[in-house]
TrEMBL record:
The keyword Cell membrane does not apply. This is Probable nicotinate-nucleotide adenylyltransferase. Pathway: Cofactor biosynthesis; NAD(+) biosynthesis; deamido-NAD(+) from nicotinate D-ribonucleotide: step 1/1. One of its GO terms (molecular function) is nicotinate-nucleotide adenylyltransferase activity. HAMAP family: NaMN_adenylyltr (MF_00244). It is an enzyme of class 2 (transferase). Keywords: ATP-binding, NAD, Nucleotide-binding, Nucleotidyltransferase, Pyridine nucleotide biosynthesis, Transferase. It catalyses: nicotinate beta-D-ribonucleotide + ATP + H(+) = deamido-NAD(+) + diphosphate. It holds the Pfam family CTP_transf_like. Residues 8-190 form the Cytidyltransferase-like domain. It comes from the Bacteria. Its EC number is 2.7.7.18. It comes from Frischella japonica.
């Protein structure tokens, strides 16, 4: 039995905003997560490349979590990056698991939007060999899928029992009941470009950083 559940939450964080932070905090309360490591991607395989530099994205994450001891930053995808090669989640999880050993309860947080694309991920069916999967709702997405292989996998591994996550090191999928935050980094960048107000969508220190760095056309 492990008892303490630690999670990894990957993203481009371009920029980090309340749509990342508030559901994560709610999830921590819901399933008694003791810690969440934010994992900035190096080259995300399924997304457009970041607009901010790696150093700028890291600086914004540091500012965003300064007042929240729940969070830390995990830079392994950036420091272990190979030139022009995407970061694959399965490699990261293998590396993360080897650090903690085979008995620690570990979880990986994704949104429903990423769940739809899961069959495109490299070795996606092996993810549960290394961690639990925590799926947060996203506006406009559901937990159902037309992909029969994915649907079968979800049914096979889903649990509503938080104890399964706490007491087993890996292997379960949990659909969270976290609040829907209709905020996206794309929307924030568009607001900045169009000179619209976006201050309420992200932590004040991140907003100030974007202003002083003239990021995204600010």
């Amino acid at each position: 039995m492990s008892g303490h559940l630690t999670a990894l939450f990957g993203g481009t964080f371009d920029p980090i905003h309340y749509g990342h932070l508030l559901p994560s905090m709610a999830l921590a309360k819901e399933i008694n997560l003791t810690h969440i490591s934010l994992l900035p991607n190096y080259i995300p395989p399924h997304k457009a490349q970041p607009k901010a530099t790696t150093a700028q994205r890291l600086a914004m994450i540091k500012l965003a979590i300064e007042d929240y001891p729940l969070f830390s930053i995990d830079v392994r995808e950036i420091t272990h990056a190979k030139p022009n090669r995407p970061s694959y989640t399965i490699d990261t999880l293998q590396n993360w698991r080897s650090e903690y050993g085979e008995h620690k309860s570990l979880a990986f947080i994704i949104g429903q939007d990423s769940l739809c694309n899961l069959p495109k991920w490299y070795h996606w069916q092996s993810l549960l060999d290394y961690c639990h999967l925590l799926i947060c709702p996203r506006p406009g997405f559901t937990n159902t899928t037309d992909n029969l292989q994915l649907q079968k996998w979800l049914l096979q591994h889903s649990t509503k029992n938080i104890t399964d996550l706490q007491q087993n090191p890996c292997g379960s999928i949990y659909f969270a009941n976290t609040p829907l935050k209709a905020i996206s980094a794309t929307e924030i960048r568009q607001h900045i470009e169009n000179r619209q107000d976006y201050q309420s969508l992200l932590p004040p220190k991140v907003w100030q950083y974007i202003q002083t760095q003239h990021l995204y056309g600010a």
